């Protein structure tokens, strides 16, 4: 069980880092006069707070005090500020880290939860994994726009409150990340 607590702590730290980094990347995009990209980062930053909440719920399931653990995990804000680059590099790095999370990190964490016979925690990790994939795809789409040097068109973004999946449209029936009904999607305003 210690292993499960360890990966949940690691997950909480990762989501805190991602949230803080994307807020910084959003500010940086505004400085470069890229308001659409600033909005994309802001939306994904919000989605990572949903993941944080999911990992805390997982900790509660194994009778851990999630708030106490969350408070213990401090991120190095100075170091993260130093990681802010030009927006195109920030987008590229973000796509890389989201891809790692869905292909590797959360996939393995779901297997560890399975090993400890914790099906709900396993499902939580799998849902987060699929949501991270939607983040990677979103960053990829905007990288292409930025690369083309075209005027970037504003598109509304919607986030599933249950799993943090981000889409440009509300799915017709169910969320592809968590399979909950699509009425859990909310529009994030600019
Ligand atoms: Fe993400
Ligand atoms: Fe979802």
Characterization of this structure:
This protein is mainly alpha-helical. It has one domain (2-188): Up-down Bundle (Ferritin). It is 67% helix and 5% strand. The protein has helices spanning 2-31, 35-61, 66-72, 77-82, 87-115, 119-147, and strands at 157-160, 166-167, 185-188. The protein has a 3-stranded antiparallel beta sheet. Helix 1 runs antiparallel to helix 5 (87-115). The N and C termini lie far apart (42 Å). 36% of the residues are buried. The mean pLDDT is 96. Residues 160, 162-163, 165, 175, 177-178, 180 line the site of one fe (ii) ion.
Features:
single chain, 190 residues, mainly alpha, Ferritin, 3 strands, 67% helix, globular, binds fe (ii) ion
Summarize the topology:
Layout: H1 2-31, H2 35-61, H3 66-72, H4 77-82, H5 87-115, H6 119-147, E1 157-160, E2 166-167, E3 185-188
Antiparallel strand pairs: 1-2, 1-3
């Amino acid at each position: 069980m210690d292993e499960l607590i360890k990966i949940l702590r690691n997950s909480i730290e990762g989501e805190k880092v991602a949230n803080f980094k994307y807020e910084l990347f959003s500010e940086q995009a505004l400085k470069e006069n890229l308001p659409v990209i600033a909005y994309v980062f802001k939306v994904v930053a919000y989605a990572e707070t949903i993941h944080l909440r999911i990992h805390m719920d997982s900790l509660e399931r194994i009778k851990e005090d999630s708030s106490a653990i969350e408070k213990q995990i401090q991120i190095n804000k100075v170091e993260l500020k130093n990681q802010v680059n030009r927006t195109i590099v920030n987008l590229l790095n973000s796509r890389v880290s989201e891809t790692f999370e869905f292909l590797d990190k959360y996939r393995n964490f779901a297997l560890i939860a399975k090993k400890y016979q914790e099906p709900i925690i396993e499902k939580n990790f799998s849902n987060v994994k699929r949501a991270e994939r939607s983040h990677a795809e979103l960053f990829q789409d905007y990288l292409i726009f930025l690369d083309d040097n075209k005027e970037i068109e504003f598109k509304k973004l919607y986030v599933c409150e249950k799993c943090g999946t981000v889409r440009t449209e509300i799915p017709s029936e169910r969320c592809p990340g968590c399979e909950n009904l699509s009425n859990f999607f909310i529009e994030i305003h600019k």
